[in-house]
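can u pls check wat happens w/ 1,3-dihydroxyacetonephosphate
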Amino acid sequence: MNSHALIATAKALVADDKGILAMDESNPTCNKRFAKLGIPQTAEAHRSYREMIVTTPGLGECISGAILYDETIRQSTSEGIPFVQAVIDADIIPGVKVDAGAKAMAGHLCEKVTEGLDGLRDRLTEYAQIGLRFAKWRAVIVIGDGIPSRACIEANAQALARYAALCQEAGLVPIVEPEVLMDGEHTMAQCFAVTEQVLHSVFDQLYTQGVMLEAMLLKPNMVLPGLNCPRQETAEAVAEATVSCFLRAVPAAVPGIMFLSGGQSAELASSRLSTMNAGFKSRVPWALSFSYGRALQQPAMKTWAGQDANVEAAQQALLLRARCNLAARRGQYSAVMDATGSLTPAASTTCACTSVARTKRTGHSQ
Ligand code: 13P
């Protein structure tokens, strides 16, 4: 393991206010999303869709890394460029999802444990040879009547830590993703308590397995009320609860917290991240960033709808979301960006929202 190279990759993934694009939906998940939009559920449709994403002009100005699916890394663009190379050409670091999915847990059938450790060392060696530089493993924790159980939390935490240790041995930065799901009626306080417990267990296992915290990234849920909780919370309350929870449980050596979107709308995911950065960026030890799947891709997938004629419009939709989240990392996202659909770049010296507002007032872009 070359720890300097690993640390440099982890730092590069959080640099310049950029974040990660998760485009690693498994085939069943991708097919479900395609089916809802009337898109054919074929390997060729997956390929065309992902080509639309990675060839979006300017994407690398906002996106530091892309998490690919195993199928994608074996495919090429229509011009014959392997996807891993196309991602590198876009100035984006390529990574890959390596877990084999969350499966029903013996003795705890309402809960899941993520599988995929068997043979992982060999798969990681191959991925590193292909040019991939980081990996992702997702564990799923459900809040419900009497759950999560200690058995579920500890089994998932141990698998995450064993995966992370294998990644670092192979020269890949592990993204450690313990996701407490939003589904349910639970309150934000319940999500806080479960997320804190899960994070303590995960970092305890990461320590036990000797994982280098400087060379990994955490990909967690935000602390939110359940989707069916009658009491929803303001962006300020979510930001406060999320940062308080992570300050208690995430060591300062971790370079970045890359939130997943988890089913939040694209606008809410940007606004909550922006509120967190506006209030706490200068006071927390890690970068508060994003590794969104749906919250980056959903508008683009809907616009694309499987039609070549829609590629350019879909790329504009993706780029808008990427720019909104770059602004969110600066604490500068505003709903105006969505309302205008403006693609005015978020220049580092200018507040993105100010420049969008100026465009709206004057009718001229700069
Ligand atoms: P969402 O942002 O859609 O939750 O996806 C993130 C992800 O990578 C899930 O593993």
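The chain has 14 helices and ten strands.
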